[in-house]
Amino acid sequence: MGDIGCYCRVSTQDQSLNRQLESTQEYAEGEFGADLGSLRFYRDKSTGTDTDRSDYQQMMDDAESGEIEAVVVHSISRICRSISDLERTASRLEDAGVELHIISEGLTLRPDESDPYQTALFQLLGVFAELEANMAQQRTKEGIAARQQNDDYHHGPAPLGMSKNDGLLVEGDNYHEVVSALEMVQKGDLSKRKAASRLNTSRPTINRALDRTELYGL
Disulfide engineering: 59 pairs with which of 42, 102, 137, 209, CB 3.0-4.6 Å? Predict the structure, then answer.
């Protein structure tokens, strides 16, 4: 067995990675008989300065280059932010021939096994990813429609990421960038100050956008 990747992530600087480090190490040693020398630890702390999950990206690169043969995480929420995110990760690892072991949920995805349960699980992940995207899109449309009935939005500037077309709100050119940044702020992965800087706006504008989450499908 080659190297085992142990991935750990917390959302804020003051949270400790120790529990996940211990959990993934114990699992890898028990499941694979791996010693400490064959474990690669990948650690991300999302604090507003490291929002790209740099160690996650490194781990996926190592997986796709054949340097690790399995990835172990403590729970689904540590390796992904959404079902669609999980589906993308699982598919990339499957294509790379790398196993994914999720301890808390008891899931093991092995690319080389024709396991009907695993096949169904991957199919379900794809279905849920599509459903999640459709639901977010529908919430956005409903939110925009509701706001269009509000006189407040027929006068004055359009909300962040939006523009107006004959007095009606429509998605602006940077709408999806705004949605991504606001979602990261909600989850503690990006500070309001950093979001404001990224979107070339102000923190009060970010606060107003977070009060109108229905506009962004959040």
Answer: 42
To 5 degrees, how large is the angle CA 159–CA 160–CA 166? 45
Reply yes or no on whether the pLDDT at 176 is more than 60: yes
pLDDT at 186 exceeding the cut of 70: yes
189 and 51 Cβ atoms separated by less than 8 Å: yes
Contact yes or no for 109/121 (Cβ under 8 A):
yes
Order the strands of the 39-45 sheet from edge to edge.
Answer: 39-45, 3-10, 68-73, 99-102, 107-109
Beta strands at 107-109 and 68-73: parallel, antiparallel or unpaired: unpaired
What global pTM score does this model have?
Answer: 0.57
> Are the beta carbons of 65 and 32 closer than 8 angstroms?
no
Is residue 148 very low, low, confident or very high in pLDDT (cuts 50, 70, 90)? low
Report domain extents, the chain: 3-113, 127-216
- Summarize pLDDT for 33-89 with one digit per residue, the tens: 988 899 999 998 865 444 568 899 999 999 999 999 999 999 887 887 777 778 788
Comparing C-alpha atoms, which of 28, 45, 46 is closest to residue 37? 28
Q: Which fold has domain 3-113?
A: Rossmann fold (3.40.50)
